[in-house]
Amino acid sequence: MEDPPRPSGAHGAPERPELTAQALAPVRPRLVPASAACDPDATPIEVQPYVRFGLLEDLVNRARANSLWPLTFGLACCAIEMMAVGASRYDLDRFGAGVFRPSARQADVMILAGTISKKMAPVIRQLWDQMPAPKWAIAMGGCTIDGGPFKYPNQYAIVEGADQIVPVDVYIPGCPPRPEAFINGILKLQDKIKAGRRFQG
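Below the sequence we write its predicted structure tokens.
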């Protein structure tokens, strides 16, 4: 003999609500007028999770800016100044960027320092693709930025600008740039990371 169906309620199984098209529709946050967006008490409940996410993103960007791991990629004489910055006299560790990595897979900043030959360009692009996101690039020196003294008509060996290979975030001019200029470039990159902005490139 079959058991009778159990009644729903306090002693039985709770009733399951019917799934309607309205219940399955995505919830969209309503728009907030500009006057209400400035007042935290007037911020609707639907928007508050996004505000918290924005604050978390700011904290993550600050942490990223103060823990940069540069990829050592010296191409020519500008690399001597890059190595000088990494030594004890200038102490790049105080800016959180003193851990130079020999592997692209553990780095998040590529510092291109020196003349880029066309034979080296595919290697640079391959290393850039191996770096995990988010990642940034610094072009150090006149040769890296636009070819420097090697830029002349019909030249066949030099890439006239690192931005033809990878998207460059900070340019540090000079031949070669002083270590103080390199530190200033690191500070500019940190400001950019904290702001959460990227130049188009």
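The first strand starts at residue 70 and ends at 74.
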